[in-house]
Write a structure and sequence with these properties.
about 325 residues, alpha+beta, nine-stranded antiparallel β-sheet, 4 helices
Length: about 325
């Protein structure tokens, strides 16, 4: 390297000058003490001058080298090697990072696990007895992981999957599949728009979160006549949010349109859709303490599907040969 060669030459010249001075006799035969001191002073002055010149040359070379360095963050590392110096230019790579697009951001990772212990012909009421009885067992009923959050200031979302569902190939095996996958635009609390896959707004027992139920299973009528998670779009909101914030839950409405043939599907069974509506009111919040409340609601559902399409999550409510529209569950069912 050029800098290394210049410094090496300077060191050699300095050493030669010192040897030349040391080789002169110390006796007074050739010169007096004052003459020798003068020569030493001149030698030191020459060395200082040469050192200044070398420093100037090094600074000039550094400036030239910096001019040809590629764009980007750089740093210089000096490594000592005896009396010489080696200069290395090293790329400083920026770390990996994530930057939100909006001014507000929220991201929450969660999940839960629910396990059943089943004993003494627990499913005999479904006809599972004798040779078809279900043996005593521990069952991984739900094993879910979810990601919820807000982004772009006016949107919230949820992505959830379950490891405890059937794999679709064998009823004795489980696999991972999607449950809730949706995006909600909430700029106006009274008129929010939701798209994706989630539970159709039909039946309070069905809409109550799994972790809020007193039992690990819902009632049999809920599993038999309420729709499972569906893929579609929904307009919903709380009209009193801005008018009466303290009682914003007094009135909530839902109006959704869905494929009507269940969750995790890629096609619709026909050109018709499932229409679901719900109107609910939460009264007497926290009247007995500990978050107690009274909720009243009414639901309506209409769907026309091809013969054999499964409407309920338990798989025992199918469309008959006449393709009769489904409109059940009275308002007092909630």
């Amino acid at each position: 390297m050029v800098i290394k060669k210049i410094i090496s030459r300077a060191a050699s010249a300095s050493l030669a000058a010192l040897i030349s001075l040391a080789a002169q006799p110390l006796s007074g035969q050739t010169s007096s003490e004052s003459e020798r001191l003068q020569k030493l002073e001149r030698a030191v002055e020459l060395l200082e001058k040469r050192n200044a010149e070398l420093q100037s040359e090094i600074s000039s070379l550094k400036a030239q080298q910096a001019a040809v360095v590629p764009e980007g963050k750089m740093k210089t590392k000096i490594i000592s090697e005896g009396k010489t110096y080696v200069e290395k230019v090293i790329d400083e790579k920026p770390p990996i990072y994530v930057q939100q697009r909006g001014s507000e951001i929220k991201l929450v990772l969660g999940g839960f696990i629910q396990v059943n212990f089943e004993d003494s012909d627990a499913f005999a009421f479904q006809g599972n007895f004798g040779l078809s009885e279900i043996k005593d067992l521990f069952r991984l009923r739900r094993a879910r992981v979810n990601l919820t959050g807000d982004f772009a200031e006016q949107f919230d979302f949820k992505v959830e999957g379950d490891f405890g569902q059937g794999d679709g190939l064998n009823s004795n095996r489980t696999a991972f599949s999607g449950t809730d996958i949706w995006l909600n635009w909430h700029q106006f609390p009274a008129a929010q728009i939701k798209v994706g896959q989630w539970k159709a707004p039909f039946g309070l027992d069905q809409l109550t979160p799994d972790t809020s139920l007193y039992t690990i299973e819902r009632t049999l009528p809920t599993g038999a006549i309420t729709p499972d998670r569906q893929i579609g779009a929904q307009l919903w909101g709380k009209p009193l949010t801005n008018i009466w914030p303290e009682q914003k839950d007094l009135l909530t409405y839902y109006a959704g349109i869905f494929n009507g043939d269940g969750k995790n599907t890629t096609v619709n069974d026909n050109n018709n859709f499932m229409y679901v509506g719900r109107l609910e009111s939460t009264l007497f919040q926290d009247v007995f303490g500990k978050g107690s409340f009274l909720k009243l609601g009414g639901d309506v559902l209409n769907s026309r599907d091809d013969k054999g399409v499964n409407i309920s999550q338990s798989g025992n409510l199918l469309v008959n040969a006449d393709r009769v529209p489904l409109a059940v569950y009275p308002p007092w069912g909630g």
